[in-house]
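Quick log. Single chain, no ligands specified.
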Amino acid sequence: MMANLRGPWTLFKKELLRFWRVSFQTVAAPVMTALLYLLVFSHVLEGRVQVHGVSYTTFLIPGLIMMSVLQNAFANSSSSLIQSKVMGNLVFVLLTPISYLQFFLAFLAASVIRGLVVGLGIYLVAILFVDLPITYPWLILAFAITGSALLGAFGIVAGIWADKFDQMAAFQNFIIMPLSFLSGVFYSIHSLPPFWQTVSHFNPFFYMIDGFRYGFFGTGDISPAISLSVVAGSFFVLSWLTLKMLKSGYKLRG
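-> predicted structure:
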């Protein structure tokens, strides 16, 4: 049993060390970016806008935390795979006696941990300036883990499909970033016209952001049960697709 787990455990540790050795770039930089968003938006809108009964700055922090968690979970798995493909060292991983499921779980776990580390970093710095309530800690943890797992799986799909760094950048610039910014990070969707409220419900990022925020304030734009069901369902569907791609060797094995 231990011998069978040694391979995926080693791959998992390799993925952890890959981002931790450049933590100034992979952890500190996202934390700084989120804090800059917080400083700029809170300076402009604090005292003018109140959402869900809390100040705008307090409302903004959970959204920024979750947005950073999701973006970094995606970046971890996608960047690792595309770098390995471009540098030609992915073959050494594929030649090892690691099953496609173990390969998937190792990459996924590392992505979740990177997302959580970045999110925790933003939270610890933010609470130095703002008194942030926590109503349902289990909801916060549930959405952080399922959300980062979903984006970690999507990062694996993107890393498998992409052959060049510019193709990977297209995922980040035209899918991840727009969906993040239009998910209610900076606003409540109830402030939108009815048409755009409806459109927002087709954005999976909205459910992750709103459910995560619900854990802090005990209120949101939609029931957390619905949000968690959507996120968990999306994760299982995407995981099934990812495992199918890994099993078939699509764009991985000659």
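The longest helix spans residues 56-87.
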